[in-house]
Design goal:
This protein is an alpha/beta fold and 467 residues long. It folds into two domains: 24-325, Spore Coat Polysaccharide Biosynthesis Protein SpsA, Chain A (Alpha-Beta Complex), CATH 3.90.550.10; 329-459, Alpha-Beta Plaits (2-Layer Sandwich), CATH 3.30.70. A hairpin with a 2-residue loop joins strand 10 (377-382) and strand 11. Helices cover 43% and strands 23% of the residues. The protein has helices at residues 7-22, 40-48, 71-81, 96-106, 125-130, 154-172, 196-206, 227-248, 257-266, 268-271, 275-300, 317-320, 322-327, 347-368, 394-409, 450-459, and strands at 25-33, 55-65, 85-90, 111-115, 120-121, 138-147, 179-183, 210-221, 330-340, 377-382, 385-390, 412-415, 420-435, 442-445. Helix 6 (154-172) crosses helix 9, helix 6 (154-172) packs across helix 11 and helix 8 packs across helix 11 (275-300). Strands 3-2-1-4-7-6-8-5 form an eight-stranded mixed sheet, with helices on both faces. Strands 9, 10, 11, 12, 13 and 14 form a six-stranded antiparallel sheet that branches.
Length: 467
């Protein structure tokens, strides 16, 4: 039997698919701040720079709770220049949960994102974080925190071990924290919660939505650098988990010891590769166990932790910021081919066309360098060829390439002796090199844009060729 597909129905299906692909997720970003004058400006700037084909940052809401430093004036100054930034002030410190409830009351977007004022997001982090919401069944997504602490010290090893285990467990059973996004379908969380992410996770999951952990969404934070601060932080978190379990009938997967022990063995290259690391791993395990005992004691005594003492050693991100690029071991190379309008491609004009394409590239480079970071490079390497070398993973490279392509194609350039004004189109290819082993073994990834290159070239060729 032959089935005939109606052309009109097929066209509607294609149009529907294109609309879904073009759909953009509107996001409200919430930043809860208590005395964050050292970090807040950088965090807001990093958030506003987040771009991607699936997201649109509609507003950034900062809730300053009982700040006694210069956090409020700094945010006020930013809000005067950037209309998307709004500031709300709680005169007294009422706890992070209270600040989140104020944020949820004011947020207007379909998806809300919570990020700490002491967290640095990778340049494509929010695209990874929010694009899953194109699926209507997804209710909450969490990213992967990577500490900037020096792993060659005991406390640095303990912090890296903690987040490495968190990553491994969350890939099996989502446990979301540090940066989260969720549908704007809840009005608030318990005001006395000391573990806001788990409280939100409980509410979203109980509404029937899917939870997703996205390890590609990378954010950098700084863990405690002293034993005292480590115990203070872990004690509060465990007490908060016990309370959330009793209050909301929801248990984080990291509360169970067996999955953690299993992942300790899986991560033995990090945890037990040398006698020193094995000893440090044992020490970190004992500290975590002691902190859990303290947290259990606090829970039984009904000691409240929702207004917690700041862990000061985690706040000096400037001290650890140089570690961010050391942690990100991926480097991408993007090759751009500039194609001037009206090129013929024949041998008689090739030399002039290549010369003019190179001239256009050289004139555009100073402007395009403003689209990348200072530590990245962009240079002219041939007739109409530009090469960018940037420290980022493949998806981040694609976003940078798209940004540069758009900037070029929206510009006009004058070339030649007479200063002829021309429009330029761009084709590009990218490769990402990431070290995966201590022996220097590299993995290479990157969908080469062969079809894009051919399409761009074909559009600029005269219609006198035949096959």
């Amino acid at each position: 039997m032959t089935v005939r597909v109606d052309g009109e129905v097929q066209a509607r299906e294609v149009e529907k698919t294109l609309e879904e692909n073009d759909r953009c997720i509107g996001c409200s970003i919430g930043i809860m701040a208590y005395n964050e004058e050292a970090n807040i400006a950088r965090t807001i700037a990093a958030v506003l720079k987040q771009k991607g084909p699936s997201i649109h940052i509609e507003e950034v809401i900062v809730v300053a709770s009982g700040c006694t430093d210069h956090t409020v004036p700094i945010v006020d100054e930013i809000a005067e220049r950037e209309a998307r930034v709004r500031l709300f002030i709680q005169e007294k410190r009422e706890g992070k949960a209270s600040a989140i409830n104020l944020f949820l009351k004011e947020a207007t977007s379909e998806v809300v994102v919570l990020i700490g004022a002491d967290v640095i997001p990778e340049e494509s982090a929010f695209e990874y974080l929010c694009s899953p919401f194109l699926d209507s069944e997804v209710g909450m997504v969490g990213g992967r925190p990577i500490p900037v602490n020096d792993a060659s010290t005991f406390m640095g090893h303990a912090v890296h071990l903690l987040w490495r285990l968190h990553d491994r467990v969350a890939r099996i059973h989502p446990k979301l924290g540090e940066v989260i996004a969720f549908r704007n379908v809840i009005s608030g969380i318990p005001a006395d919660s000391a573990v806001d992410e788990i409280s939100i996770q409980a509410l979203i999951s109980q509404l029937g939505y899917k939870l997703i952990y996205k390890p590609e969404c990378v954010v950098y934070n700084k863990g405690p650098v002293t034993v005292r601060d480590f115990l203070k932080q872990r004690r509060r978190i465990y007490a908060g988990h016990l309370k959330a379990r009793a209050q909301q009938n929801y248990e984080a997967c990291t509360m169970k010891v067996t999955p953690i022990v299993r992942q300790l063995i899986v991560c033995r290259d990090f945890t037990m590769s040398t006698p020193k690391r094995a000893l440090w791993t044992l020490g970190a395990t004992l500290l975590e166990g002691y902190a859990r005992m303290q947290g259990c004691y606090d829970y039984l005594r009904k000691k409240e932790h929702h207004i917690w003492q700041a862990v000061n050693s985690t706040k000096d991100l400037a001290e650890g910021q140089h570690e961010v690029y050391r942690v990100c071991n991926a480097q991408s190379v993007i090759v751009f081919r500039l194609i001037l309008e009206g090129v013929t491609g024949d041998d008689l004009n090739r030399e002039r066309e290549e010369r003019e394409a190179t001239e256009a590239a050289r004139k555009l480079v100073p402007y395009l360098r403003t689209k990348i970071r200072k530590e990245d490079t962009l240079s002219v390497n041939g007739p109409g060829i530009m090469t960018a070398v940037i420290r980022t993973e493949q998806h981040g490279a694609q976003l940078v390439a798209q940004s540069i392509k758009k900037a070029v194609q929206e510009s006009t350039v004058r070339v030649g002796v007479r200063g002829r004004e021309v429009k330029v189109t761009v084709a590009y290819s990218s490769l990402t090199f990431a070290s995966k082993a201590l022996d220097g073994t590299m993995t290479v990834s990157g969908p080469l844009q062969v079809e894009t290159v051919l399409a761009e070239l074909t559009e600029n060729q005269p219609n006198n060729t035949s096959c």
